Structure formats: structure tokens, C-alpha cells
């Protein structure tokens, strides 16, 4: 087994180095999101329900390999971003595909890759699970390895069900796009990150291998621990922003490995920012409903906080007391300007 892992690591490093030296980020098929694609990202974000404070995510493959690797990677990236109890990944294999294996046992190659990536041994060696359409209701988000798998799932549904479920069935490659992952924009600090994490270091040197990547693209790399950053560094510029064909290869090569790692970062960013945006919106609605006239300008922060908590513990509990008071003060300042034209208390 150790010999298999060593050979895999040497193969991965060699292929990455070769590809990186012969390609340029500006030459490959990076893509800018069209309005249609942006709409798809927004639809997916809106289809998620953050009120339960967690998302259940299922990866669907057709080989009993990529899905279990993606599952382990997302668990690792989520833990690094303090989202271990927010994102709950699992995986399954679609039997209807011509590539589907007959044996549910974990393939030796997949187990070796999982071990080389430091992923959970228990989940990486478990027997695979066959995909079932009932998972569309049981999971918040289904992420397929390629468009063929997504099409197989959606074609199994009626036209009405296709329209309803399509936003929650996404391609893994879509999460390689910084624009797709950041469709909610920066809505404040995500629940899993400290505000200091968003302050760029003046002393931080940008690695040569990522100099062709946008600042938004580097945010995806920053959500990876150092070991995973080093793992994808030789070919990250070949993967970030790539279209679906990066994952179409049946060979588990360097770019597929990097794509799975970086997509895990993209999924984490997308889900955490979606949760943050939904709670931001809900809290803003509470402020508007409760404090909207001249009399409310005299309400103290303590009084306001008590009133808001009585209205909705589920929304206010997402924020710290300091965050709630800060948001209330900003709301009152804006309200004062709107009603009396003066922002002074």
C-alpha cells in the first residue's frame, strides 16, 4: 500500500510540474460567468435553507472513486475553516451510468489517494452507496462529478420536478469559479472565519505558481491548509476558473486531483457565504420591522437587543451581542438620516 501511495505522489507531482511549465493561465479555457450562469448560482443559493445552521451535501459519481475522495476533502477543508459542524458531506454512485462499478467495495486506488491526502480512513474505506432519487429531498445540495451524471439525474424526473430540483443539483466544476462561489459577495464575516482572516498581509509573498490567478481565486487557495495548498500549487492556475472538461477525464491525473481539492474550497466558501447572507438579510428585516419611525430613534441598544431576541432567537442567536449592537447602531444612524436628515444622536 505504501508503495502505491509513493508512486501516486511521484506521478501527481511529475504531471503537475509538466503541465504547469507548458501551459499558461491566459491560454486555457478559463471562463467568465454569463448572466445565465450567475442566475444559476443565485438560484442555488436561494434554494438552500440556512435556518438549520448546517448543510448536508452529497457528491454523486459514476466510478465509486471521485465522490468518496471529494467527500473526504470537503470534510477536511470544512474542519480547517471551523465549519466541521456546518457542512456534512457524503457520497454515492449512480448505477445508471455505463461506468458504474459492479462492486460497492472501495477501490484500492481510491483508498490510496485518500490516504495520501490524509483523509478519514473510515469514510474512505466504506462500501459505496447507490444513488437514489429520494436523496434529492434528503440533502440540501447534490454535486455531480460531470454533466452526464447531472443529466441522468434530472432526466429521471418529470418536467415540473426538473425545474424544482435543478438549482440544488450542481456540477463540481462550477465551484472552481471564484465568481460562482462568491455570488453572494462579501456580506460580512462568515460564521467560520475571523474578521482578521480577511485582512491581507503586507508581508505575504504570492507564490509564482499563483501569480496568474485573480485575488478572488487566491481566496479559494487561502481556505486550504498549507499541506493542501502545497499539493495544488504546481497546477492551481490550470484549474481555477476552468470549465467542465477538467473533470471529464477517466484518469485520476494531476488536474483532477487539484480540481477536487480547490472545488472543496469553493463549496465551503459558497455555503458559508450563503448562510451568512441569509442571516444578514433576516436580521436586517428584523431591524426594519421593529425600528422604523422617529420614536425608535430614542431606543437604546440594550432595549433594542432585548426586543430583537424576543422576536427571533433563531436569527439573533447567529450573531454575537457585539455584532447585534453594531448592526442596530448602523441601522439607527441610517434611519436618523432618512427621517430627520441628521446622523448625529
From TrEMBL:
Residues 1-18 form the signal peptide. Keywords: Signal. Residues 186-213 are annotated as: Disordered. Residues 202-213 have a biased composition (Polar residues). The keyword Signal applies. This is Phosphotyrosine protein phosphatase I domain-containing protein. The lineage of its organism: Eukaryota, Sar, Stramenopiles, Ochrophyta, Bacillariophyta.
Amino acid at each position: 500500500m505504501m508503495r502505491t501511495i509513493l508512486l501516486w505522489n511521484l506521478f501527481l507531482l511529475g504531471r503537475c510540474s509538466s503541465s504547469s511549465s507548458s501551459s499558461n493561465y491566459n491560454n486555457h479555457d478559463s471562463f467568465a460567468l454569463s448572466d445565465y450562469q450567475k442566475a444559476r448560482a443565485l438560484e442555488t443559493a436561494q434554494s438552500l435553507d440556512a435556518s438549520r445552521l448546517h448543510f448536508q451535501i452529497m457528491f454523486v459519481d459514476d466510478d465509486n472513486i471521485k465522490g468518496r475522495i471529494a467527500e473526504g476533502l470537503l470534510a477536511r477543508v470544512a474542519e480547517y475553516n471551523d465549519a466541521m459542524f456546518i457542512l456534512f458531506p457524503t457520497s454515492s454512485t449512480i448505477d445508471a451510468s455505463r461506468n458504474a462499478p459492479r462492486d460497492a467495495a472501495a477501490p484500492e486506488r481510491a483508498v490510496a489517494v485518500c490516504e495520501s491526502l490524509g483523509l478519514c480512513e473510515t469514510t474512505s474505506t466504506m462500501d459505496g452507496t447507490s444513488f437514489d432519487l429520494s436523496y434529492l429531498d434528503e440533502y440540501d445540495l447534490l454535486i455531480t462529478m460531470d454533466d452526464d451524471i447531472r443529466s441522468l439525474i434530472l432526466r429521471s424526473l418529470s418536467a415540473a420536478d426538473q425545474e424544482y430540483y435543478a438549482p440544488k443539483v450542481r456540477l463540481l466544476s462550477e465551484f472552481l469559479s471564484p465568481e460562482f462561489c462568491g455570488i453572494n459577495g462579501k456580506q460580512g464575516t462568515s460564521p467560520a472565519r475571523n474578521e482578521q482572516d480577511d485582512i491581507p498581509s503586507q508581508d505575504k509573498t504570492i507564490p509564482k505558481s499563483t501569480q496568474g490567478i485573480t485575488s478572488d481565486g487566491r481566496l479559494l487557495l487561502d481556505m486550504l491548509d498549507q499541506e493542501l495548498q502545497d499539493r495544488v500549487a504546481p497546477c492551481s492556475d490550470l484549474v481555477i476558473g476552468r470549465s467542465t472538461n477538467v473533470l471529464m477525464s477517466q484518469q485520476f491525473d494531476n488536474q483532477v486531483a487539484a480540481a477536487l481539492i480547490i472545488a472543496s474550497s469553493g463549496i465551503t466558501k459558497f455555503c458559508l457565504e450563503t448562510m451568512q447572507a441569509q442571516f444578514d438579510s433576516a436580521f436586517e428585516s428584523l431591524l426594519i420591522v421593529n425600528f422604523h419611525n422617529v420614536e425608535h430613534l430614542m431606543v437604546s441598544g440594550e432595549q433594542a437587543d432585548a426586543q430583537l431576541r424576543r422576536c427571533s432567537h433563531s436569527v439573533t442567536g447567529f450573531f454575537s451581542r457585539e455584532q447585534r449592537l453594531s448592526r442596530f447602531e448602523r441601522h439607527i444612524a441610517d434611519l436618523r438620516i432618512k427621517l430627520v436628515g441628521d446622523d448625529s444622536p
